[in-house]
Amino acid sequence: MDLFGHGEVCVKIGFLGGSFDPVHFGHLIAAQDVYEQHKMDRLFLVPAAQAPLKPQETQSSAADRLAMLRAAVEWDSRFEISDYELRKGGTSYTIDSVRYFREQFPNDDLYWIIGGDQLPKMHLWKDIEILATLIKFIFLERPGHPAKAAPTIPGLRLLRCDGHLVEISSTELRQRARNGLSLDYFIPHKAIVHIREKQLYR
C-alpha cells in the first residue's frame, strides 16, 4: 500500500545481465548511469549461467562469480543481485528470465539494460517479439560510440541512456590475472580479494 492507501505503487526496476567474470567498474558504472538517469527504484545485477551468443565466455564457477558480485556491491543499497539464471543453469535466455521476473513483479515497470553494441543483434534473441511485449529496453550509448540502429522488431520499446566511456574488458582482466598484473582500479577491492584468495584465472 502507498502512504495514502491507494494500493501498490508502480515501481521502476532495471535488470543488468552479464557473465560478470569478473565484475568490473565498467559494469557498475553502467548500472549507476541507468539507475540515476532513468530514476530506477531498484536495479538487479543478473549473472548468466551461460550467455547464448557468447558460449565460451564463462571461466569461473557460478559460486565464484556470485561471490565476486556480492563482494563488489553488498555495501550499496541501490543494487541487488538475482541468482535466478545461475540456479536455473544451462543457457541463459533473456526471455526465460524476463518471464520469471514478470511473475515476481506483475504490476511494476521492468527494464532490461543492454550495451548499445547489442542493438544490431537483437533480432537473433530467442522469442524477441514476445520479449518486446514483456519488458522495455534501455541501451547505453557511450561517447564516441554511437549505437547502430536496432532491427525492426514489432512493439520494441527502446530508451537511451548516456553511458560513460569505460574501456574495460573481462577478457583483458582475466589475462592480467594470469600474467600476475595488478587488478586495482579495474575491479572493486573486495572482489579482487576473492580473486586472490581463490587464485582465479591463474
Keywords:
202 residues; alpha/beta; Rossmann fold; globular; disordered N terminus
Structure description:
The chain is of the alpha/beta class and 202 residues long. It has a single domain (12-168), classed as Rossmann fold, CATH 3.40.50.620. 33% of the residues lie in helices and 17% in strands. It contains seven helices and six strands; from the N terminus they run βαβαβααβαββαα. The chain has a six-stranded parallel beta sheet, sandwiched between helices. Helix 2 (62-73) runs antiparallel to helix 7 and helix 4 runs parallel beside helix 5 (128-134). The protein is globular, with a radius of gyration of 17 Å.
CATH architecture: 3-Layer(aba) Sandwich
Which bin fits the share of residues in helices? 25-40%
Question: N- to C-terminal separation?
Answer: 51 Å
What's the mean pLDDT score? 92
SSE layout and pairing:
Layout: E1 12-18, H1 25-37, E2 42-47, H2 62-73, E3 79-81, H3 84-88, H4 94-104, E4 109-115, H5 128-134, E5 136-141, E6 158-162, H6 170-178, H7 189-198
Parallel strand pairs: 1-2, 1-4, 2-3, 4-5, 5-6
Give a brief outline of the structure:
The chain has about 200 residues and is of the alpha/beta class. It is built from seven helices and six strands; from the N terminus they run βαβαβααβαββαα.
